[in-house]
Amino acid sequence: MGDRADGKPLIRVALVLLSIAAIALGAVWFKSARDQQQISRLYQTNDVVVLANSSAEVSRLANPSLPVYPNSAGRLMEAVVAYRLGNPPKSRAILESVVAREPENAQAWTLLEIVDRFTDLAGAKRARERLLELDPLFGEAP
């Protein structure tokens, strides 16, 4: 009987620790799910185009001999979030770094044109011209 009494506090401590770990894990999962929902909403807005929107970009992504730039998606999302949170200069800096590294990334040029549209008309014009170089049909309606 003495052995059982000695083990109870240990079991209680283990259960408390397990409960705390479960609550922490649930909180992390919930935050991650909420962040994913916010990111999804940003992708679905009408004022920001994030998907491949030009035949040049689609061709580049489909060509197995050209690099896909797997890290640019995260950087583009950072730029979208910065823009949506009211920080166009940060968004512009991120996009400038992406287009410097990936001069044929139509998504980055599109986002840069959108960001510059309200802050730097010359920059927006330059981004638009680069998009038209990448895909001459970009400016035409489907």
TrEMBL record:
Keywords: Membrane, Transmembrane, Transmembrane helix. The chain crosses the membrane at residues 12-30. Gene3D superfamilies: Tetratricopeptide repeat domain. This is Unannotated protein. It comes from freshwater metagenome.
